[in-house]
Records
---
Amino acid sequence: MRTIVEPFRIKSVEPVRMTSREEREAHVKKAGYNVFRLRAADVMIDLLTDSGTGAMSADQWGAMMRGDESYAGAASWYRFERAVTDIFGFTHVLPTHQGRAAERLLFSTLCKSGHVVPNNTHFDTTRANIEAAGATAVDLPIPEGRIPSASHPFKGNMDVAALRRLIAEVGKTRIPLCMLTVTNNSGGGQPVSMANVREVSAVCREHGIPLYIDACRFAENAWFIRTREAGYEDRMPIAIAREMFELADGCTMSAKKDGMANIGGFLATNDDRLAALETNLLILTEGYPTYGGMAGRDLEAIAEGLYEALEPDYLRYRITSTAYLGAHVAEAGVPIVQPPGGHAIYIDAAAFLPHVPPLALPGQALVVELYREAGIRAVEIGTLMFGTRDPATGTEKPAATELVRLAIPRRVYTQSHVDYVAEAVVNVWKRRDDVRGYRIVEQAPALRHFTAKLEPLA
Ligand SMILES: Cc1ncc(COP(=O)(O)O)c(C=O)c1O
């Protein structure tokens, strides 16, 4: 059968309010042409992020009802700890309210000024937390990982030769840890092969550098390994995940992704001394070590969700459905980051709208057009998000790439919603020559994309 079938039935629904083009035009104008400023109720298909936006299963809701909200030693904590230890295998588990809290605990304990932390590609909160600790974050993707149109089965891999060069250049004592992000979100949701994890792990162990995995999308990565890497075709995703984590010394996790939860995360490590320091910090800023930043019911939802994320039927559907969206728009000629990632499709807005220069924000122009066309909310990852502005002269420097991300929430939208999105993207593609750029009329000094107001160029 070629039809993609969701491996779940729907027990509870939320309305998607239909809007007319005129209504959407008024909403987006009122929002200053910034979709972050829209009311979610005015969005028909929300592809802003896959983080914390998924639907929970009946088993997760059931587990939440038995959430034990005891301050210390709750039964929910022991269920959470058992699940995390079973899948990830590390000796210490510190529960946090989301991924970036785990990052802060890790980097503020391990990093200081002069330190360097390599990763295939740092996610922005990872980079920010490393820099907040005074250290430098370095991206070492393979060369294909930097080229949107280049195809590679494991485009999220780290460049191992570049890692060796970095260690030789700065010295191992200045590298307190090395990270690998699976899948590589900033690099387009691209997977990392087991061979690459093994090689990076070997280099790290040779130099005594601990390896931590940014595990947000570990289950999706395990599925890519099963379907693309020789020798793994018959292995269960949970076995692949366990093999991957055995090669590392710890991990950070945002359970808002492959934890199938709306909030939560954890830090895990095999290092007793570090765990003791991090636990002190956890108590100071998150909470008691048996709940950290979460309620007992959140711990339950994650303990269940981690296993659901690893179910082969779910992963087959998830990855196939994302690839289907990518294939449909690419067939019509839409330039996308190839191959499609696990959780999102990234449109190359610079190639989509070559007549809109980077400083006229082609990615944002496409985001606004998708909302106008069909009520779809995507996110710009280009000059609005990453462009820099000299505060003295007001001179703008564009970002390296102009991308638009369509991130797919887990188990939320049906295949007909996916068809609707594909149709809308292709409709905008057909009238792309008429799409104009934007200019910023109001912006904050940092993270301007969240609140900026824009206006269309004449
Ligand atoms: C790869 C990666 N690491 C870390 C994070 C941070 O997680 P959180 O949003 O839960 O703080 C994210 C969130 O999108 C992510 O994609």
---
Amino acid sequence: MSERTPWRAAVFLWMCLASQAQAQSSANDPAGSPPFKAGFAERDITPEVGMEMPGNYGKVRGTSIHDPCKVRAAVFDDGTRRVALVGLDALMIRRSTASSARNAIQATCGIPAAQVLIGASHSHSSGPTGWVLRGEFDAASPLVAKLAYEESPVADPAYLMRVEKAIVDAVCEASHRLVEARCSFGSGREDKVSFNRRLRMKNGMTFTHPGRGNPESVAYAGPIDPEVGVLGAWDKADRLLGVIVNFACHATTSPPGFSANWIHYLEQTIRGGLHADVPVVFLQGACGDITQVDNLSPYADPSGEKQAERVGGSVGAEAVKVLLRAEPGHGGPLNARTKVWKIKRRIPDPARVQQALALVQKGEREVGSTEWIFAKEILLLDAIIARESEEEVEAGAIQVGPAVFISNPAEYFVEFGLELKKRSPFKFTWPVELANGCVGYVPTEEALGPGGGGYETRLTSYSNLEPTAGRQFLETGLELVKAMTPGKVPEPPRAPPFTAPWSYGNVPPELK
Ligand SMILES: [Zn+2]
């Protein structure tokens, strides 16, 4: 627009914009539908210094605090249903904790338990939400109980109660804060901060983190998922209410101290980029075999702090771009479905259990040594199987308009996440792992086969479901989605009908 635009042109432009705004507002609320609402809230669950910081098979304690760990909640209401999506800065959430929180939400603010998704971010610098629960091994032999309670990560009952209350409070506050809202849906691409951590080796097997410069490494054993899924919600005055981000990368960057891990920098980048101090709900994608570590890089790893900034900042910057470009509109319809069933565990050979027992009983163990750790884990698993040879699991699907969040409690391999996206009828399919429970690693059948191997495929008290588990989660997730009809992706208002080109622009060059 030229500075010397005649006033008539300015009036015409104003009329166009006004009619566009009118068209936009009617497109946002389909005729007869009640207003779509959104609400967000968060709660602090930063652990106390000295508490356990679970993240591997032994005990580690937090010695400082880097940034707050949070519960981050989004609630949507389309006039027919209300759903809640909760991101938890935690390594995991045990099924009993998730169920208890979901039931309390239903009782306190009326959102049905099955319409609440609680997903752990898998932060390896968060508080003691697992993985052993107090009392769980009381019926086992004194040796096994000691291995469970004294040599493994154990949840802190008081902390668990605090987390559970914080989840209920955050969801109920978000529900209380529901206001008329428009939502945007979009995807960005960030393919330089996450890597498949499993590598094909010259011996024909697949190893996890074989290390940089290893001459036996051949290639990455699998893909990554570079999609940054982003849902934004704005109120009637166009103020950002909150954001949901979905991306697949282990939260193992671990800056020093208790921390939301790289999710802290994701939040800071989005808040800074959009000048809005709003909740950022992070839901972890299928990252069972994905981390920030590039085993084929010739360069040394930067510090944990730098890695956290790199991953969180890059994913956050991509999310900002998506939010700036996407068009907000009607966020409905909402839908939610779940299925609960049991999956068999893999049973260790009796000879392997005997060998593990002998190794642990020798008493000459080197605590922390790989062989000893896996022997301890076999004994714990053996005790779990004596109690229950199958594990109760839940898959879920929560639809928000043209997007669907397909969840399960696995550390889910990225191959499954990509297949979910490919086969889903939704434009935006965002897998959420470690949701409403935790069943450890669920690798592909190929990874558990003859050319497989690596950390995720070992039999432990944490990861032990039968090889078809991943496919069961996949097919069940898709089955749940089948009954849903995707909403329309909001579009910008259409240009008004063409009348005439700009009278200053449709002219030939002038040479003299
Ligand atoms: Zn993990």
